[in-house]
Structures are given as C-alpha cells and as structure tokens.
Amino acid sequence: MALNNPAFNNPAFQDPRAVQTYPGGSGAANLGATSQTASASRAGVDVAAQAQMEGLYAAPAAGAHQTDRMTVEDTVVKTLGLFAVLLVTAVVGWVWTLGALSPAESTGQSIAPLLIGALGGFVLAMVIIFTSRKKVRPALIFAYAALEGLFVGGISAIFEFQFPGIVVQATLATLAVVGVTLALFASGKVRASKRATKIFLIAMVGYLAFSLLNLVLMWTGVLPADQAFGLRSFELNIMGISIPLGLIIGILVVIMAAYSLVLDFDQVQQGVRNGAPRQFAWMGAFGIMVTVVWLYVEILRIIAIVRSSN
C-alpha cells in the first residue's frame, strides 16, 4: 500500500515474500521451522530428526534477538528510544528559544532552533527514506529524532510564549489521540482499508495544496498582517456562530493524522508478518514518530487558533 507514510514504502513492509527477499541470520530457527520440516520429509530423515525439528514449535517464542526478525515489541522499544532522544533535544530547543524571546534579543535568534530542526530534519528524513531500501541506518534515525526535538522544542516555546499553558494542553490532547487510536487498533475496531486510504490520500493532497497557498499568501503580504494564521484566521458564520476556518480544518487534519497512525500500526504488523529483518523495526519507529510529531503540531495550532479568537 503506497498511499501511507513514506517511511513504510519499502518491500519489507509491502512484499509478502520479504522473508525470502531479506534472508535472516542464523538464529531464525522458529521462522524457518516450516521449510526445514518440509525439506526433512522430502529427504526422508529418520523419526528422531523429525521429532527434534517438531520440538522447535514447542519451545518458547523467540524474540527479535534470536530470530533477527522484526517484532512488534522490538518496534515499540525502538519507538520509545527515539522519543527519549526527541524529548532531550526538545528541552534544548525550548530553553534556547525562550532565552532568545526576551525583548533584548532578535526574532531571528528565537526561531533558530525551529529552522535548524525543520530544515535539517526534512533533509535527513529524505535521506533515510530513499536509502532504506539498501540499508537502514539507525544513526541517521537517531540524528533525525534529535533534529525533530529541536523543532518541537522551538515551536512549542514560541506558542507557549504567546499562549501560556498551551503546550501542556497540546501534549495531553496528543497523548489522548494516540492512546485512543492505539486502543481501537489493538481491539480490531479500527482497521485500514483501501477505500479509506484513497480518501485519506485525496484529503492529504487537498490539505497540502491549502497549506502551500496559505504560506504563499502570508509571505507575499496578500493577507492582513494581523491574521497570524493566514487563511486559517478567517471566521465562518455557521448558524449564527462564528467559527474559525482553522478550527474546522484542524479537526479534519487531526482525524487524518489519527488514520495515518492506523496505517503506521498496520504496516508494522505487515512487516512482522512478512518476516522483515529486525533492522526495519527502526523504520517502523521512525514512521510512527513522524506521524505523532505532525499530530502534535496540528493540535498545537488548533488550540492557538481557538484561544486567539476568544
């Protein structure tokens, strides 16, 4: 399914024959037990050898270290590790930005962490995505997490400076959305489908086009300077109630981000079923982190739009 997070556009997640495409290490006993049993039968080995082979199935399930294959548990551990790095550098970006937001400092200094994190993270993400078909490099993914932390810390500090308490609100809301989405996915009540994914793709293209237009209109000065969020600041009168356009769009984007998480979880499971090598757990963790950061930034913006309109 090529319509989801680009981090998962790799044969390890897409190709059901990935276990043959990416042969594992010598420890992949459980995963190779079926083919070994079939070969043993064809070769006519004795009963004792067959009994020993069948004993592999009765042994405890092997983990990622023993099989050298991707597992859900290993992906979760790697995801938590990346977020730990992100949080550390987010503190750096936060302190750096808040320190530069004093009247004595320039605006350029205050947005430095945000720009470094955003531009550096984008370039590094492209490198990670396009080189992962040949080799997954955890060091690059850790570096990306560090840059994302600078971006998150910087943009959070700027919003917090303007709207005190907004970061706590956005963080709790993000954790709630991620938690509910994961619970619904784990229970089987929410699943990715081809039709929903096509709708998601169309909505994403529309949102990207809107964001690009909004950015151009703000940069060129077409929109009034007092509209901090550009087109999102326009208010629609619905049944006598003024509702910011940004609030409506923001809610739709949060739904899109939540569905993107469903796609991410689904692709992680697909990689496990395909028998993808253990290294691709890093790509699963990377993809999930990208989506969660996107979700957090959108929620941050929604709350800011609501609070600025009051």
Structural account:
This protein is mainly alpha-helical and 310 residues long. The protein has one domain (69-309). Helix content is 71%, strand content 3%. The chain has 13 helices and two strands, in the order αααααααααααββαα. It has a two-stranded antiparallel sheet. The longest helix has 30 residues, at 245-274. The two termini are 43 Å apart. Residues 23-38 and 55-60 have low confidence and may be disordered.
Element layout with pairings:
Layout: H1 11-14, H2 18-21, H3 33-43, H4 47-58, H5 64-67, H6 72-100, H7 107-110, H8 112-131, H9 138-162, H10 166-187, H11 194-219, E1 235-238, E2 241-244, H12 245-274, H13 280-309
Antiparallel strand pairs: 1-2
Helix pairs in contact: 3-4, 6-9, 6-13, 8-9, 9-13, 10-12, 10-13, 11-12, 12-13
Strand neighbour order, sheet with most strands: 1-2
Strand count: 2
Euclidean distance between termini CA atoms: 43 Å
Structural class by SSE content: mainly alpha
The total tally of domains equals 1
Radius of gyration in whole Å, from Cα? Answer: 23 Å
What is the helical fraction, as a range of percent?
A: over 70%
Strand content: under 5%
Q: Note the run of SSEs as H and E.
A: HHHHHHHHHHHEEHH
Rounded mean pLDDT is: 80
Number of helices: 13
Low-confidence stretches: 23-38, 55-60
Main beta sheet, described?
2 strands, antiparallel
Shape: globular
